[in-house]
Amino acid sequence: MNAEVPRPRVLSGMRPTGALHLGHFHGALKNWVRLQATHDCFFFVADWHALTGEAQTPGQLEHHVYDMVVDWLAAGLDPEQCTLFIQSRMPEHAELFTLLAMSTPVSWLERVPGYKDQDTPSYGLLGYPLLQAADILIYRAQQVPVGEDQAAHVEITREVARRFNHQYGNTFVEPQALLSETARLPGLDGRKMSKSLGNGISMREAPQAVAEKLRTMPTDPQRVRRGDCGEPARCPVWPLHEVYTDEATRMQLASGCRSARIGCLDCKQPLIEAIQKEQQPWRERAEEWLTDPKRVHWILELGTERARAVARKTLREVRAAIGLGY
Ligand code: TRP
Ligand code: SF4
Q1: Are 190 and 219 in contact (CB under 8 A)?
Q2: If you measure from the C-alpha of residue 13 to the centroid of ligand 1, how many angstroms do you get, rounded to a whole number?
Q3: pTM of whole model > 0.85?
Q4: How far is the CA of 219 from the centre of ligand 2 (A)?
């Protein structure tokens, strides 16, 4: 790549839910790892956003933050290629949030999915999308890799940017959502893999536990006995093959299933092996980081300082544009 041409800026964040599962990897993290080679990437822990959810003890939150960052590093995020930081260490985001709040109509925020379903939503939950807009705009990110569930938030970010630029002059970049292409990974019960449903396989799950979880995973409900013919389209295991298994093998497995030539354990075996193989380098990298937790802190410290330099510069320009440059 030509060193003269600046790399497009990318920003994304995740709420700290603790150790990540395969759904997080295939839905988001894999994309982040790819982007770091070609883009100027900023990835952060959205710990303020996490406070709008279920209450956690302070100790839990800290664990969740560090477990998640270890998984980021295990997946191959390289602190020399991308900038990793923690939202709550960046009061600059809060300042921009405040300034944007002064002119953002409440009706824009109420529209966001999730808000209306709550009986007693907090003020913070109402502001959730605007805080996210501040997270993105303060880095002038051009691209925001997120899942489809976040598309509405990026859309509001664009509207906020457009409105500000119109009112005060060109200050912000209108970001684009980079929607991840991977189909949702099903969990062990066939529903979306999710921490709260307890149906996941974590990135650092022990190899034996992976085998056990997959072997006991339900299959086509109409395939009760080994001799019954099955149908992959009805089977919760099948979408995993769509992520992990090459097309030729998939054709063989599908026809073996439909004719009852193979049993479900035969069908699951290549999947078990593929997942275990995928996890191997993650486990090795994670072990290294876990033996030296100070290094993880240090990486985040460094990332926070890099992020702060960018955020400060934007804020100075925002203050000046609004007329607060005194
Ligand atoms: N709301 C995002 C999530 O729940 C996390 C997030 C916060 C985020 N700020 C962001 C994602 C900015 C992308 C850009 O996953
Ligand atoms: Fe599912 Fe495979 Fe069993 Fe068919 S053989 S029901 S696809 S696990």
Answers
A1: no
A2: 5
A3: yes
A4: 6
52 lines ligand 1 (CB under 6 A): no
Q: Whose CA is nearest to atom 4 of ligand 2?
A: 257
pLDDT averaged over consecutive 10-residue blocks of the chain (326 residues)?
Answer: 81 95 94 98 98 88 96 98 98 98 96 86 96 98 94 96 97 95 80 86 96 96 96 96 96 98 98 98 96 96 98 98 94
Q: Which of 255, 268, 271, 272 to mutate to test the pocket of ligand 2 (most atoms within 8 A of CB)?
A: 268
Neighbours of 283 (CB within 10 A): 15
Ligand 2 surroundings by CB, under 6 angstroms? 219-220, 223, 230, 232, 235, 237-238, 257, 262, 264, 267-268
Q: What 8-state DSSP symbol labels residue 149?
A: G
Identify whether the C-beta of residue 11 lies closer than 8 Å to the C-beta of residue 141.
Answer: yes
CB atoms within 10 A of CB 88: 19
CA distance 155 to 152: 5
- All domains in the chain, ordered by first residue: 9-185+292-322 (3.40.50.620), 207-285 (1.10.240.10)
| Closest ligand 2 atom to Cα of 223 | 6
Predicted pLDDT at 2: 58
Note the pLDDT of residue 117. 87
Mutate to test the pocket of ligand 1, among 115, 149, 150, 179 (most ligand atoms within 8 A of CB): 150
- Predicted confidence at residue 259, as pLDDT, reads 98
pLDDT at position 166 is 97
Query: Pairing state of beta strands 40-45 and 83-86?
Result: parallel
Pocket-testing residue among 31, 68, 93, 132, ligand 1, by greatest number of atoms within 8 A of Cβ: 132
- Res 4: pLDDT: 74
Quick one: pLDDT at residue 274?
A: 98
CA Rg value for the chain: 22
